Structures are given as C-alpha cells and as structure tokens.
Records
---
Amino acid sequence: MSINEVQDEIIEEFGLLAGDRESTIFYIMELGQKLEALPEEHQIDDNLIKGCQSKVWLVTKFEGGKVFFHADSNTDITKGLISILIRVLSGRTTAEIQQADLYFIEKIGMNNVIGSQRSNGFAAMIKQMKLFAFAYQAKAASEQSSN
Amino acid sequence: MLDIAKIREEFPILHQEVNGFPLVYFDNAATSQKPKKVIEALVKYYEGTNSNVHRGAHTLASQATEQFEQTREAARAFLNASSTEEVIFTKGTTEGLNLVASSFGRSQIQEGDEVIISTMEHHSNIVPWQILCEEKKAILKVIPMTDEGELIFEEYEKLLSEKTKLVSIVHVSNSLGTINPIKQYIDLAHRYGAVVMVDGAQSSPHFQLDVQDLDCDFFVFSAHKIYGPTGMGVLYGKKALLEKMPPYLGGGEMIKEVTFEKTTYNDLPFKFEAGTPNIGDTIALKYALDFMNEIGREKIAAHEQDLLAYATEQMKAIDRVKIIGEARNKVGVISFNVEGMHHFDVGMLMDANGIAIRTGHHCTQPLMHRLGIDGTVRASFAIYNTKEEVDRMVGSLRKIIAKFAK
C-alpha cells in the first residue's frame, strides 16, 4: 500500500469516530497500547525526540534501501500518535519519507483533538522521522560516491 | 449556608459546555475564574476613565488615580498591613519575589551568607534565589519534607544560623495543597535575625491573612488567583525594610527629581513602581477583593474544606488512585496519580469529559524529584465548585481507569 493509501485508510477509520473527542482519544490510546514496546536498552536519552512534552524514544533501521522505525513513549496518547506515523512511514524509501505529504493530519482534525502543545510534539516526531530519512539518504549517497 | 448556585451565576465562564459536557473547572490553583463585577470593572475603566495615574492635570486622570489608590487601600486591608506605603503593585507573585531578590538580596546578601527555601517551592521561589546566590557566592539551603508533604521543622531549625540572611517559603504548596505553619517558621528565623519572605500565591485565595500577626517581612500574591485579573499582583514589605532597599526598576513614577548628575527617588510605595502601571487590572482587583470580602473568607475556607474532605474520601475509594500530598492541613487541592497510567493521559481523558484539571510537575520539579515522580494530576477547588462536580470527576476517573489502567 502506498503512503497515501495508508493515509486514506486512517482518515476512514477516524471518520467512524464522527469527531467525538473522547472516542478519538480512546482510539489513539488503544493504538498506543497495541504498539510493541521498545526494549529498555533503547529507552535512553540519546533516542529521545526533542520538542515533545512526553518522552518519545525513536530508533531506526536502514535495510534494503528502506527505513524502519520503532518507538515507545511514557504516555499512551503519545505512543498512539507515533504508532500512526510508524504505520504511514515505516518501511518506506528515504525519498518517499522525505516527500510524504501528510494530509491525513488535517483531514482528521488532529490538532483539535490533541491540542496545540501536543501538536507541536507531533510535528517534532514527523520532523525527526524525515531527518532520519534525509541522513540515511545522504549517507547512502556518500558511500556510493566513495565506491 | 452559602448559596453556591447564586455565586456561580456571577461567573459567566462557568456556564458553557466543553467537549459536549458542562464545564467542571478544577484548575483554580493555576488561575481562578473572574466574577462579572471584575470583568465589568475592566470594561468600565477603558470605556469611561482610562487615563494615566498620579499626574492628574485633568478630571479623568484624577478619577483613575483615585480608583487606583482605592485598590491599594483594599489590598492593605486584605493583608491587614499597617499602611498603604507597604503595598507595592507588581505584575504578580513572580515579580514580587524577583523584586525582593534583586533589591533586598543584592544590597544585603554578601559572600558566605545563607538563604533558606523549602523542598516544596514553586520555581519562581527557587530560581531568583539561585541567581542571587550565584552572583553573591551565597549559599542556598533547602528545608526537607516528609513523604506526606509536610516540612520538617526540626530540620529547619538545624539549617538556621547567624549566617542566615533570608528565609523565603511558600505559605501553601501549589502542588500538594499543604498549609505550612508559617508563623512558627517566621518566629524562629527572626530569632536568628533573618528576614522572612512568604510566597502567598496559593494561600491568598483560600483563607484570612494578617501580615502583622504573621510578622513576615515580605508577602507576595497574584490577583489572578484570587478572582482578579491576570498580570497584576501585590508585594507587601515592612516599611523599614522597603525604605532601606534600592529601587528595582528605574524610570517614570519612581523619581522625585532627576538631573543628569543625580536622581532622588520617590517615597514608598512609588519608589518600586517605575513606569505607567497596569492601571485597569489594578482597579479591577478591588472588585475581586470585594467579592471575597462580601462572601467572607471564613466561609470560603469552610466551603472549600468541605469539598476537600468530600473529594478526598471519594478519591480514596477508587482503586489505583494514589493521592500525592496528605498533610494534616491542606487547602482544596488534590494531587494524584493513577497506577499504570501516565498523568498526561488521565488529564487528556478528563478534559474530553469536560473536566479542566492540570497535569505535569506544576513548576515544582525539585518537589517531584523528592517524591520520586515526574508529575501528578491536580484538581484544585474554588468557592464556585460543588460536590456534584466532584462526583463528575470521580465518575470520569472510574470510567477511565476501568478502560485503560494496565
């Protein structure tokens, strides 16, 4: 499924919640509780995303030209939020991640649901994920040119 | 009996739905809501009186000055200070603390001197003293606390010595609700010749104050926590101390005469009020003080104690809820955590139920470290809150726990 197909799927799922704030938060928290926990050795300060009020640890793997994300957080809502981003962006090429237009955020009215402070944290997560993609791409390019 | 329904009518903001539920406002320790009379006073001032104070060559200016100074008299009476010269208008508690740290602190604290604060201070009663102590090479000492959230008087006694120049402690903890037996702390500090500052941000909304009886040297509070406007506060200081202190800010209002060679300063309290003050909010503060006086501070305290007792009992009956801060004397503040849930998640779900509470470290990170936690959920009550609202909170909490607590 393409990034946009996954986004459309998310928009449809959130559409079923009909804008009810409580159900939407419940849903995000449930997604968070389903996210596989990150081993404790990865829950270190070096892996924290800066700009989040809660603690969000993000680790990455670069395999076969694709970036894989794993994350955890000390709060279920934040865990739910990063799990949505992982669903959209993990296992994609560096170019796909960098170019991704994440229109689902506005479509599902995310900012209204999570409020402005958490929206800033959410934006920080996206920025960090795109940065990783950029770094892997730059690294791959420099390895290629040195070969 | 107080007619709380009638009191609630005076607060327009309370009558609305948030996220589809009638608002329950339990974030009063952060800021209280404002009665109509305070809001109307602001509008009336800007519509009818707006003029700069203390330089009245015209009628409106003298009206504005008169109303402005009426607030000073009302604030004096609120604190039972002996004179309006001892009542200085500030931006709020934080500025009052910084004013004293900067003016009294810089002029009186020397290398090797000691300043004492407590474990349960708000950051605004920590950071100004840290800055001062760093600059002066003075030493900052901290009164320890029990697990229940009470300061340990015997340990305080051990910290005091002839080196202690200043003690600055919180009257009521914003995070735990603990009412510190402040008079005892003041008396003991005075025996060592130390000056005592009291952070009254969280005591001023809840019970009767008497700075002469307490015999504190400085006392600060914020208007916005006592049903008044934001951006306005009061610093009380004993006249003899204030007279000796150098100005905090230089500018208009605070001078007697300025030449390029030398400036002489204005008398108290104006020496500490440089620049055009926050006139509108200051005038409106009087209406907040009137509001509290009309109900009566004993009655406010009694109502909030009643709510606290009721809420504490209800909360303790919920499985997985742990109340943080169980001092014997508390104001209407309940800090708590839910076992297996993060306080942010609890707060967000309660907000979805229309219940406004605060989550996080409440600007008391050292206190959180002492308790070994990174934050709490905090419900804090005011005169307009009811037992039905407590029931709403308890119901919401039970639902959240049943669904999410792991």
---
Amino acid sequence: MAHSILSVTKVKIAFGDRVVIQDLSFEAHAGDCLAVIGPNGSGKTVLLKALLNLIPYEGEIRWSPEARLGYVPQKIAADRQLPLRLRDLLEAKATVLKLSGTELDQVSSEVGLTRELLDTSIGHLSGGQFQKALIAFALLGQPNVLLFDEPTASLDELTEEHVYELLHSLQRDKGMTVILVSHDLSVVYRYANMVLCLSKGKPCMGPPKDILTPAMLEELYAAPARYYRHIED
Amino acid sequence: MNLPGGHGFLLLLALFFALAAGLVGCFALLKRMVLASDVISHLALPGLGIAFLLKINPLVGGGATLFLGTLLVWQLQKKTGLTTDATIGVVFAAALAIGAAVTPREDLIEALFGELQHISLLGFILGLAATLFVVLSVFLLKDRLALSVFSPELAATIGVNVARIDLYFLLVFSLTVLVGLRFMGTLLASALIILPAATARQLTDKLSHFLLVSSITALVSVLAGFLFNALVFRLSTVGPAIVIFSALLFGLSLVRRRT
C-alpha cells in the first residue's frame, strides 16, 4: 500500500462563532484521487484552503516532507483586465520558484497551451483556456499533489471532459495525488478511488462504491438522489 | 553646499524620479491604489510644516511623517478591515488638517506645490540613491507583485508573503513620493506616478511594455515640463507644467486607443 502523504487530525475550522468543519480526521495516500463532496456550505473549499495553509485552523494537518502542492482554485477573483499575457503569468511563477526555462515549455505542451495562447492577454482567454492556464500554473514546479476545487465550474460539457481527461492522465502517468472537490458525482465515480463526505453530521470516508449509495447521498444532501433516466419514445 | 550648473542637476534628479515614478505607478495602478497614492503624498504635509517651523530640512520632516503615515495606512487596513477608501477618508483629512495648521503661511505654497531651488550635493546623492533603490526594488519584486495583484491566494500558495509585499511596495511608493516632493510638492507628487501608468495602460497588454511605456511617458513629461516651465510658465515650481504635459499625453493615448 502506498505511504501516507497527508494526515489530517481533529481539524476544526471556524469563522468567528460559525464552525464550518469540526473534528475532521482523514489520511490520503500517494497516488490517491480523493474526491471531497458535500452540500453547499459544508466546507469543501475551506478544507482545501486549510490544507494549503491559507486560513487558520485548529488541529493538525501534516504533509509528508516530499509533498509539493499545486492548486487550481474554483474561481479566481483575478482582474482579467490586467496587462498580463499568459506567458507573463507563468514566467512570474517560474521566476519566483527559480525554475528552469525549459519547464515552462514542458508544462505548456503537457496542458496543450499553444505559443499563440501563451502570448494572449489573460483578459482575452475563454473560460476553458483560462482553466487550462490555471492548471498549467499549478503544474509549474513539478508538484506531486494537486488540489482541484471544482475545476470545471462554469465550463461547457466538452471542455469539462477535456479538463477531467487531463487531470486523469496527470494522475495516471505521473502518479500524482489528486484532491478534488466536485459537485459532479459521475466524475467522482469515474476518477476517484476515495471519497470524503463533508456534511453537518459526522464526516465519512471510503471508496466510491461504499459512499455513493442512494442512502448515503440522501443523508448527505438531505434529499433523495435523483438520476437522469432516458425514456424512449 | 549647492551644486553648480543652474537647474541641471535638479533636472537630472527629476529624470531619475520620473523613471522610478513610471515603474512604481504601473503597480500602483494595477493594485488600484490610485486614490491611496494621493493620500500618501499628503502624509508628508504635517512633516514639511513642522520642518519649516523648526527650520530644518523640509524633506527630513516630510519623510518622517510620510513613512509613519504609510505604516499607519497599512496597519489600519490590515487590523480594522476598513476599506481602502474609508482609510483614505480618515487619513487624508487628518494629514491635510494637521499640515495646514502647522505649516507657516509663507511656506504653505512651497509645501503644496514644491519649489525649484538649487540642490545640495548631499540632496542630489540621496535623491539619486533613493530612485535607484526604487527602480531596483521594482525589478526585483515585479514577479511577486504581478502574482499578488493577479491573485493574492495563488501567490500565497507558492510562498509569496502578500502582506509583506504590500508593505514593501507602500514603502517604495512613499520613497518615490519623497523624492518627488522637491519638484512637485505634496499636492502633485503622486500625479507623475499615476498619469504615465494610466497612459501606458491604454497602449499595451504586455507587462514589460507597460513598464517601459510608463517610464518613457514619465521621462518625456518631466523633460517637456522643465522646458515648458522655463520658456512659458516661468513659475518657481515645475510641478504644474509636468502634470499638464503628462495629462496631455494621457489624452493622446485615449485617441491612439480609439484608432
């Protein structure tokens, strides 16, 4: 069995009097694709931010020493009118992390960013291109853990498919650990090997087949799970 | 000891100030602190007033309140959660009121608009060192600044200390204003930081070009301002001519963008 890359013990996250996450403990192993699911307001994004040490928390979050994190946020409050080309943005990260010049080219080709796209102002990128740009940004520095927060929110289905295929190939080919927040249960079923449910009650964790059962989902979302059923004429 | 050569050394220092202002202005514009920058320049007024009263070098007094005030603005924003415009409202009013109350009437115009005086060797060297420090700082920090403007959160995930970068930038900004006080006074010192950057923003979407065009615009504004003041305005301060020329270039950039 792969070794533990992340260990979370009795974590509590609160904003003032409002407790968002309480008594959360779980582990992730190298190479896992761990999906985090739960209703709105259950603290999925907040958990990712705590894992990235962006917000204060109580308890312990311990990454193994070899963990190098990359983060793709759900949406970014970035000013798209900034006079920045995609290349400027990626080069800025490469410079801060003192990466070699070839790494930027390598990541760009992995993600499918053409030279033309790299020279495009970030304000002129489409939703899908911008998401790819954020993935490329996350991949610079050769992370071995990727944290994805709703990576395909606001994308059309085809682009969504491309993004998940990319995510899957990164995990498969590079053995990356992926921690994925998603509302799309079919995606979770397809790609995740472990699922962490966050809800008002006790958090639960297990393989998708054990967690994504109608009874569990009804309890989690406090409503019966509905499935699309195709009716032939 | 004053340097010989009329206003030659003053012009040389003004050009270095323009270079620093053009670069700093780019990030001030991106960080949406155009109004905040106006406040920061006014923070020098109480210090200038006290220095005039005590008959010490005005830039020493102005610099002292400028840096203390900058730290105050940073702390107010960080600790109270006040928005930038609220902080501006509070600090701007207080600094202007204190400055107006303590500055001797006969020195008030100089404090507000600057004055063309011969420059001492020490003043020239310190001014030069300050502008070179600003230029170097912007070049060394430009990637961190760009990332923290793009997304403070993403910047933090790669180890950029966004709060520290903000403070450092405010201090570099204040230092630029301090050098500009001599030429522009507290009312106009920030104008040469903002106008060239606003002009450059109309003309390019590329960061390196943005920095370059802003610097060139600031340099041209200062050169033209000195020339225009010497030939036409003949004022004891060069600030108004520089700002008028800078605003003219901004107007031209709007025409260029439309075409």
